Amino acid sequence: MGYLIRDRQIVPITTNAFPLFQQAYDLLVEHGSYPLPEQKNIEYGMIRGLLQAYDDPYTIFVEPPQHELQSQQLRGKFGGIGARIERDSQNQYRLFPFEDSPAKRSGIQDGDILLSIDEVEIRADMPQDDVLALLRGDKGTSVRLVIFREHDQREYRFQITREEIALPSVTWNLLPEDKLVGHIQVNLMSSTTPDEIKKAIEDLTLHGAVSFILDLRNNGGGLVDTGIKIAELFLPAGSPVLTQTYRDKQPQTIQAEKDGPFTQIPLVVLINNSTASAAEITAGALKAQQRATLIGTPTFGKYTIQLVFDLPDGSSLHITAAEWEIPGLIPPIRDHGVLPDIWVENETTENLNGRYIQAALQALRSKNSP
């Protein structure tokens, strides 16, 4: 017997609720020539089938290794040994330690081949995310590695204590074409990104920058709150940033609570079709408030919010729970994404980045001219 939640009939999940599945399962047990998958794999398959029938591309199931890596990216840091891994032409995983990292200090050398991590054999068919998940863990914990070093044809064993490793989401530099312009590349909307952008602007200003390019090209998004906070860095108090609507609730508009520290600096924002989600919030809010000139091509057009629910085995379910819009943005994002003020044609990739930069410089010079 079902019951009503928010005017929708919900069928309790019991074996009797899925008689066809139960019959198919029993038939496989009775007649199948091959062993059944592990219970975990059966459950994962059921979840994927449920989501396929649900038919929302942004409501997704994420297995434990991928979920942990995504969480670390959004936190902007993780516990690890401080090394890059690469798969070579023989599908062997090789380590390349960062300078002054736990891996480097322990004696790991460039190109060492990973054989095992905590007694787990590193196979050629193992996904890279699974290898990364084994290497990472809580700060202060240790991990045991066995590696093979080609130049002396020997195996070595290491026990390395994990340390906090930063995952910067922002890089910056003065433009070679104009040393008065600071270029800030934002790759991801993580919890540390607003502070990284603030640090970037302060550092660039110290080195002579007076105008700035906020580069959101190929930024697939991240945390919604981060997209809001970045916009607030450049907006005066009271500026509307985002209106979000959850099911069965009234729309809620979020406004900048105080003047941002950079409300007066000349600013352009670079966007393209791979600018998505939380990055579109930043770009859209700055355009709607006429705070920045947007340059490029229309953004991706993702205007939904996903809630992430951790499951007991370390996997997660990402469920679309709300939609958002930018107050004053014309046309609305759901129609065509966020549209640029100045278009950069991208029929050819020849000198595409140069054309973006030249358009940005021209826009900034017009802002700075009396």
UniProtKB/TrEMBL annotation:
One of its GO terms (molecular function) is endopeptidase activity. Residues 79-151 form the PDZ domain. Gene3D superfamilies: 2-enoyl-CoA Hydratase, Chain A, domain 1 (3.90.226.10), 2.30.42.10, 3.30.750.44. It comes from the Bacteria. Residues 153-345 form the Tail specific protease domain. Keywords: Hydrolase, Protease, Serine protease. Coiled coil: none annotated. The keyword Protease applies. It holds the Pfam family Peptidase_S41. GO terms for biological process: proteolysis; signal transduction. SMART domains: PDZ (SM00228), TSPc (SM00245). CDD domains: cpPDZ_CPP-like, Peptidase_S41_CPP. One of its GO terms (cellular component) is outer membrane-bounded periplasmic space. Belongs to the peptidase S41A family. This is PDZ domain-containing protein.
